[in-house]
Amino acid sequence: YPSELLMQKITEDNQIPVHLHVSVSLQYVAGLKGRALVEFFHSNIAEVENEELRHLMWSSVLFYKTPGVEVMACVLLSTKAIYFLLDDSFIHADEHQSDFWNKENSDCENSSFHLSCCFVLKLNDLQSVNVGLFDQYFRITGHSADHIVTCLTRDSYNTHTFIQQLMAVLSLLARTPSPEPVDKDFYSEFGSKNTGKMENYELIHSSRVKFIYPNEEEIGDLAFLVAEKMDGLTNLPSLNILLYVLAFQVNHLEGSAQNTSSLQPKTLILTSSDLFLFDEDYISYPLPEFAKEPPKRDKYQLADGRRIRDLDRVLMGYQTYPQALTFVFDDVQNQDLMQNLTLDHFGE
């Protein structure tokens, strides 16, 4: 260990997405190749001597305790744990994190020593993995609120590859076998299925970790929600969601020294008649078992919506992935798509 093929694969995957900025410490990690990368893992990250690095991925991540802060991370999967090597700016992004991250090393800030936090989720603590719509993201759930992380890959290939590698590693775990199922009587068996709500597709791995995939009802619920945001004249059965993709909305910052832009995470939904941008909660749904109350915000919040018939032109950049698209609409003043929320539904 490790094989040349594995080292080549890990080296190829060790690339920071060009549109995201990271700290110096993570840039150093991204500069490592082959054996140097494996040695860095064993000397700085690995918790036990005999664990093997199996997969590396760069992704934006969200934590359950801090749902509003998306941070870049180098995700390392070994035969013992999943390691999230985090951008050091994350510690200072939110004042309410003092109980979540200890700040023992804050005296290193002004030196040439670059600090990275490493969040560790042991495979033995893993309970379930929820895969998002169209494999755009996935959520890893442990035994408490501190152990829930969403990886926003924004890429079905990266999601699929990580899930495959995770399943392979979980197969190596020696866990006690599940107890034999108790034979249910006819009434309890019949009653449990008559809930009126279809459960998501579940695949229970041999390691007893659940892999949960969305079903068709989730798309139906999303189509209904989108129809609600429209002008009410839409025929719901004919409403088709053509595209669901996690993207960024580019906001140019005026008055800055350089012509910089900030990227706001959005969910883009395209139907046969409209284009929508939603603020989506990627971390709180479905509710974890220990949640005492529903999240403070809905899963989908409409940020913007325009009719396709008002689309004037689409400008495309010439750079490679990620592709920048500019949608130019000719009805900026007359946004009659946006409903008046003060409408009195009980009036005439």
UniProtKB/TrEMBL annotation:
Q: Which GO terms describe its molecular function?
A: kinesin binding
The PLEKHM2 PH domain is annotated at 114-178
Key word Chaperone present = no
Domain Nischarin C-terminal PH span(s) in chain numbering? 241-347
The residue stretches assigned to a coiled coil in this entry are: none
Where does this polypeptide localize?
Answer: Cytoplasm
Entry's Pfam families?
A: PH_NISCH_C (PF25625), PH_PLEKHM2 (PF23142)
A GO cellular component annotation in the UniProt record: endosome membrane
Give the primary localization class: cytoplasm
InterPro entries, alphabetized: PH_domain-containing_M2, PH_NISCH_C, PH_PLEKHM2
Could you list this entry's UniProt keywords, alphabetically sorted: Cytoplasm
One Gene Ontology term of the biological-process aspect is: Golgi organization
Give yes or no: UniProt keyword Cytoplasm. Answer: yes
Question: Could you tell me which PANTHER family the record lists for this protein?
Answer: PLECKSTRIN HOMOLOGY DOMAIN-CONTAINING FAMILY M MEMBER 2
The protein in question is named NISCH protein
